[in-house]
Write a structure and sequence with these properties.
about 170 residues; alpha+beta; Alpha-Beta Plaits; 4-stranded antiparallel β-sheet; 6 strands; about 15% strand
């Protein structure tokens, strides 16, 4: 009877140690070493604190949307930019899209000549490269004035480009 003999292999090098993790186990690195998902951030109320419900801001001031709390200003608490009155702080704000890249605050002010607005509220969005993105914002004195400006000036030209106006 023949015995089955297994071939003899000399012992090889030792197995490599387990791989070390170079980043947190909560997320994996995507292309260009950018995280695909961020790890949960610790919070003062525990790891997973409840989200802020409607009408609750991070400072703890409560109030349901649309609730008139302007009486608090009479009690010595400021109205905080329309927050306490239930009126959004951007009432009368209009987004301008399609601005010429060389448009200035003066160009926008001239375009809305005849409407009630504060010149200081005109903003032109700039990209990371320092050039205009072609978008801007203006705040009119009242929401009604903003609506009137949108209906009368939407699609009109500033320079050689037509602009689109949106209530914000």
């Amino acid at each position: 009877m023949y015995a089955l003999r297994m071939p003899f292999y000399p012992p090889g090098p030792p197995a490599p140690p387990p791989a070390m993790m170079s980043h947190a186990p909560y997320y994996d690195l995507g292309g260009y070493d950018m995280p695909q998902a961020m790890p949960p951030m610790p919070h003062a109320m525990g790891m997973h604190a409840p989200y802020n419900p409607m009408g609750m801001d991070p400072t703890g001031m409560q109030g349901m949307m649309g609730m008139d709390m302007s009486g608090m200003a009479m009690a010595g608490m400021p109205a905080m930019n329309g927050y306490m009155t239930g009126m959004p702080s951007n009432a009368g704000c209009v987004k301008i899209r399609g601005l010429p890249y060389r448009a200035t605050v003066n160009d926008i002010a001239d375009f809305f000549n005849g409407f009630a607005f504060n010149r200081e509220t005109i903003q032109i969005s700039m990209g990371y490269d320092g050039r205009s993105t072609g978008e801007g914002w203006i705040t009119f004195d009242t929401p009604e004035e903003a609506s009137r400006a949108v209906s009368m000036r939407n699609g009109q030209n500033i320079g050689n480009r037509y602009v689109e106006l949106y209530m914000v």
